[in-house]
Amino acid sequence: MVVEARDTIAGSSAVDCDVIATRLSERLESLSTDGPLAEALQRGDFKSESGAMRCELEIEVRFGIIKYHRDGQRVVLPVTTDALVSERAPVKFVAGVSEAQYKAASATLKQVSEDNKAKSNWKSRLGVLTFDRFFKLPDYEEAVRISVPQSQANSRDKSFEAIRKVKLVSWNVFTGQPSISAHRNDETAIDSGPEHLDYRIAINLEYKVPLRDMPATSAAKICRKKARDSYMNTKGHLRFDLSCVQSVDNDPGGGDGGPCSYEVELELDGSAVIEVLMNESLDHSKRAQLLKYHCATLVRSVKQLRDLIAKGDAGIPGADTLATNLMTTKLGLCDLRFVQHDAESVRRYRKAISPQLPLIGDYLFRAVTPAIEKSAHKRHTRSPYREYIDCIPGPYVVMHSGPLHGKRVVLCTRDHHSSDNSAIENKLS
């Protein structure tokens, strides 16, 4: 995973933090001073009691599509970069990716985690099956979830707990316009967003609910089966969760249920953020820098993984090399070595742009060259003695004033071009 350097040799911050990561770090800092997170910090909810904490901080990013409420179509904004959508906008976030994108994410993370150079920084937990039940309780605003292990992979964790979430932040991030061809000719492409995946950033508090307060399992409002593969990067404090989810009846041993939906999530380790917020020895600037470090790592990883999986398996030719290099080296989002163009864009480029390149080059040469030549000529012909004054004294010449006065040395200016000079020079010669 990409992990940013925290300090330069001179000691200044080296965190490459874009607007979204900066705002996220600032929001975390503000939440720690006022609101539910601040109250939890003051009460000591994040301090372990008998090996377990009463509360955990969840910072997660989920891929999906932002759609309008009115027609269910993907939001279209006049921007080509990631942009936060207003919380008042009449839109909804629909989580999920296509099966091809899910497989692409799985293949990418598998290759990255098994790379020899970075293998020591990765841990994986594959094939975890759980049965989730969601209950609506009068004492809590949000639904309470109970996850019951169903597989041998997590049979050692048979002791399960009820969890309720307290929502702090929910940001929808739009990632750019769909292609023109899809917009004009393929409405289903816009709806499924094969080339564009938006994402949602959520900050929540997760509290444990005593099981004695839970109703009978038959009271569950939503039930689902979930198969999950998780990849943890210990150096970047990130976890990647790939889930296949089915809505089912309230019976773990029941039928297959409805169709399977696919989800890809990234989660920043909340304990690393809490450690920064609770460290009283840090001054404000250092705390802000560390928060930006974690948030920049999260946002950068989201963008890189999104760009890799957006087109599914077809969008990652040579994934062995691309995935390994992208996740283990410090590369920018717009690195030209990893740009992938669809066939329609290539065809249009070859038809409309490529034949005009000679004309474009000739025009630019004719338009720019005179100015460059003029500027170069000025640089080479400028006298070093004419930098700050217009009239330079000198040179000194000898003037012959006749038999009475003889020869004398006089000062001559550069702008003096009278015929006397010629006469004087003739007399001296």
From TrEMBL:
Q: Which UniProt keywords apply?
A: Hydrolase, mRNA processing, Nucleus
Q: What is any one GO biological process for this UniProt entry? A: mRNA processing
Question: What InterPro entries is this protein classified in?
Answer: Cet1/Ctl1, CYTH-like_dom_sf, mRNA_triPase_Cet1, mRNA_triPase_Cet1_sf
Please give the chief subcellular localization of this protein: nucleus
Query: Keyword NADP on this protein?
Result: no
| Cofactor(s) recorded in Swiss-Prot or TrEMBL | Mg(2+)
The entry lists its GO molecular-function terms as:
mRNA 5'-triphosphate monophosphatase activity; polynucleotide 5'-phosphatase activity
Q: Which N-terminal stretch is annotated as signal sequence?
A: none
GO CC annotations? Answer: nucleus
User: Could you tell me what reaction this enzyme catalyses?
Assistant: a 5'-end triphospho-ribonucleoside in mRNA + H2O = a 5'-end diphospho-ribonucleoside in mRNA + phosphate + H(+)
Top-level division of the source organism's lineage? Eukaryota
Tell whether Iron is among the UniProt keywords: no
What Enzyme Commission number does this protein have?
Answer: 3.6.1.74
Listed name of the protein: mRNA 5'-phosphatase
